[in-house]
Amino acid sequence: MAEQNVEAKLKKLLKQDKIQLWMAPYTLDAQQPGHTHVQELAERYGALLRMQVSEVAGALEVIRVQALRRGQRNQTFRETNMATVELLLPRDCHKDSKMFMETRLDVSAQDLMDRIAQEVGLKSFKVILNGKTLNSGLRLDQQGVRNHSKMMVLKASAITATAAAGQSTCQDANDGNAASQSTSHDHSVQRTHRGFEILSERDDSDDLRTAPFLEVADQRGNPLKIPHKEKKALILAMGLHEKGRALMKRKRYDDALCHLLQADLHFSECGSELLGAVDNHGVLQLDIVWCYQALEALSCLDDGRERLRLAEDCFLRCYGEQQQRLLMIKGNTGREEALFLRLHLLQSLLAFVDGNDLQAQQQLEQVESLYTRLCPDADKMTQLMVLGFSEREARLGLRACHGDVHEAAMLVSNQRQEREELRQRERRKRQQTKAALAVLAEAGYGTREAAAALRRAEGDVDRAFQILLDASQTLATSDWNADENLQQLLYLGFERSSSEAALALAGGDVQLATELLMDNPGAVFPATSSPWEEEPATSSSSADDSQLVNEVLEDIPRHEDDYLDLTLEEELQLINTIKTHLARSLAH
Fold first, then answer.
1. pLDDT tens-digit profile of 91-131?
2. Are 290 and 341 within 8 A, CB to CB?
3. SS in 3 state form for 401-457?
């Protein structure tokens, strides 16, 4: 961190003075340094930065060598189309944290991953570029990889790798094959994804007796009415986010980052109006950058800087410029200030690495002020816990009430009552839904079609009846026409199964179905889904689905404000680290 700070300051001075260290007189023939001129430059910059000349000279030499190598790699790329990419490796798998690798850009990402696996000795990993996971099946240039691109290599933990090896026959069959490097991460993410996909459909499935009822709510806990597809994307994003946060708590930052980046993809499927109503997207950006710093991936500065900007914009939009909107909604702002503490702490870190000591110091002072206010007094915590409140409730209550024990006790009691009212409301809603489904079932309708009709009718049974009746009449008419069209194709000599599939693909058009059958003799056309099935059927058994759901539910916190319950222990460690580096830097 300190080295990056010094180099950033020197690069600014070099750019300001228009000095090119890779040119004479700073670099001589055979690329040797011009010692006299470099020494003079070190003395001048040392005085400006109030640093020891030897330290500045060493940093200048590092910058000079980097510039020479970059020039050589540019020349190689121009002459041979061989690009050089910089890989940030996991800390415990290689003697150096960085590795440079030459590659053509018109090859698949799998080709690069094969070479990483061979040279570094990793079996299970992902490659991240600008916060996105490389797709092994696509070419590097199709995914934005360029000459000098910086990429992160994320290693699967032993726990994840073991689980994948025991549950994936594909992994067993390809043991030792580099094509399975990302299986561990993929397996974990895919299981989480499928589990929340099942849950996102449970509100209108036929398993209402046992399924958790998922609802997207605003900051008051009121349900948000959003389109089904968008709601599903949001639930998937929030579910993957929660899984990532659970892994962060276990210090498994590689695995956590894979889940968080996947969550980010699903958030991108949600409309801006929806994202503006909830703070989840901002919290996710914050968590991703926290993983970057935990993995010491400070080379992800550009991506991290943009994510912190998105997080800050989201918080200001959701909470208000002076958190006045949050105050109006919740009556207090103390708990959410923990998010701003982490935000400003990461901003301080990035400013320091960028060589902006003054900005880093200002941000850190703001962080320390927040820390003093948010770190609860042990005696007050004990007083509240004696009253029967949990440690989490005591900590968040004291933060919300700025340390006032009596007000905190009143607040937590009121929150418990509000949560109970929400649970009762949810229970009543589920009972009403089950009762409505029972009424429609007695009329002879299936659970899936009845649930779909109820959703379209927003719970109104009479409207749902009408929707189902209209659909039945339309289906009857279309069935009569479809049978007549099918008979025409059978008369022409085509097989029944192929004719039915071709008509379905052609939307009932006999002429187009005939052309399909004649152009594709003997072909087996894919069957189409029922008009009531909004998602493709899955071959997973109900037992497998239940197992997946139970797995993902283990990582869902029981309290909606769990993401605000930061103990601030990790934050304090980072505060002290930045303070130490700043003290040395400002003392020069």
1. 777 667 889 999 999 999 999 999 999 988 888 888 999 88
2. no
3. CCCCHHHHHHHHHHHHHHHHHHHHHHHHHHHHHHHHHHHHHHCCCCHHHHHHHHHHC
- pTM, 2 dp: 0.75
For residue 395, list its beta bridge partners. Answer: none
Which of the residue ranges 9-13, 221-225, 350-354, 477-481 would you say has the lowest mean pLDDT?
A: 477-481
Can you tell me the distance from the alpha carbon of 87 to that of 498, in angstroms, rounded to the nearest whole number?
52
User: Could you tell me which residues are beta bridge partners of residue 151?
Assistant: 87
d(CA 340, CA 399): 13
The span from the CA of 454 to the CA of 393, in Å, is: 38
Buried b (16+ CB within 10 A) or exposed e, 476-513: eeeeeeeeebbeebeeeebeeebbbbbbbbbeeebeeb
Closest Cα to residue 263, out of 208, 217, 307, 214? 307
| Tens digits of residue pLDDT in 154-203 | 886 543 443 343 333 333 333 444 444 455 555 667 777 777 777 766 64
Residue 456 to residues 228, 258, 450, 534: CA-CA distances in angstroms? 10, 36, 10, 13
State how beta strands 125-129 and 132-133 pair. Answer: antiparallel
Q: Which residues pair with 264 in a beta bridge?
A: none
Report the distance separating Cα 376 and Cα 398, nearest Å: 7
d(CA 135, CA 108): 9
Which residues 6+ apart lie within 8 Å of 86 measured at CB? 98, 99, 100, 148, 149, 150, 151, 299
Alpha carbon 499 to chain centroid, angstroms: 45
Q: How far is the C-alpha of 395 from the C-alpha of 560, rounded, in Å?
A: 15
Nearest to 233 by CA among 288, 188, 287, 280: 280
Cα separation, 364 vs 362, in Å, equals 5
Cα–Cα distance for residue pair 118/11, rounded to 1 Å? 35
First-to-final CA distance of the chain: 16
DSSP string, 274-325: HHTT-SHHHHHHHHHHHHHHHTT-GGGHHHHHHHHHHHHHHHHHHH-TTSHH
CA of 140: how far to CAs of 111, 258, 434, 522, in Å?
9, 19, 51, 39
Please answer whether residues 296 and 97 qualify as being in contact, where contact means their C-beta atoms are separated by less than 8 angstroms. Answer: yes
pLDDT of residue 541: 55
Q: How far is the C-alpha of 465 from the C-alpha of 453, rounded, in Å?
A: 8
Backbone angles phi, psi at 177, to 5 degrees: -90, 130
Residue 198 in contact with residue 218, Cβ under 8 Å?
A: no
Any idea where the domains of the chain sit in the sequence?
A: 1-76, 443-536
Residues 374/334, Cβ–Cβ less than 8 Å: yes
Go through 199-221 and write b for each residue having 16 or more CB atoms within 10 A of its CB, e for each that does not.
Answer: bbbbbbeeebeebeebbbeebee
Which tokens in the block code for residue 196? 């929340």
Dig out the tokens for 518 from the structure: 């004649």
Coil, helix or strand at residue 103: strand
Torsion, Cα 222 223 226 232, to 10 degrees, reads 130
The answer to whether the peptide bond before residue 25 is cis (omega within 30 degrees of 0) is yes
Residue-wise over 179-192: b if at least 16 C-beta within 10 A, else e? ebbbbbbbbbbebb
